[in-house]
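Trying the structure run again after the queue cleared.
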Amino acid sequence: MTARKIVHIDMDAFYASVEQRDDPLLRGKPVVVAWRGNRSVVCAASYEARAFGVRSAMPAVRAERLCPQAIFIPPDFTRYRAVSRATREIFQQHTDLIEPLSLDEAYLDVTENKTGLATATRVARAIRQQIRDELNLTASAGVAPNKFLAKIASDWRKPDGLFVIQPQEAEAFLLPLPVGRIPGVGKVTEKNLEDLNIKTVGDLRTKDLPSLEARFGRYGLRLYQLARGIDDSPVVPDRPQSPSPPKTPSRRTSLSPNWNP
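Done. Tokens:
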């Protein structure tokens, strides 16, 4: 099977960046998009706020303690959705195979693209440049032969970065990564893996499938596959959530050494 060419686009600090774009007085300031109050959580934080340890999903009161000088902005989802639609229009100039994960990120299958660009890397560069020129925002991109690797790659050089994982580089790239870098591995799963003395993807790869399934159930198969860089899930346009893991480890995409990103 011919390897896919997948691009994962992730807008940088999206809600906060939109606020800074639209109000010049906020640029360069620690902006936290959240309602104030004990029950509020952070929707987004600018990189200036992140320097103080503020993160999305953090309680707003904790964010205020970490960064007392932060400027709190109530979220305006109507505006964010409008900007998200504009990014989608840019994506559609390159491919119809677009799977949004949220307002600020999406997978694109550019194995074949509309603009005739020779490589997926060039498509990613073109999209990032259009976002900069047309929307005055920045996005990071990951290019890889599957969705799993592309998502990791997009986070590798944030903000405003581009990173490519070629098939022949996937193993060397993955093995030293902490297991917490695997999408879907939260704090609980990470702790369970640590209990098995699994701290890196390389450690995970030493475990056989039966032992992982015995400990993690169906997700054990997913862990087994991702440790080997295997992810056959297609880009499904307008799918509301990521697809379920494949049911058999024998279903795998060939990562051809001739794959041209």
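Strands lie at 6-11, 31-33, 44-45, 71-73, 98-102, 105-109, 139-144, 162-164. Worth checking whether this holds up in the mutant runs.
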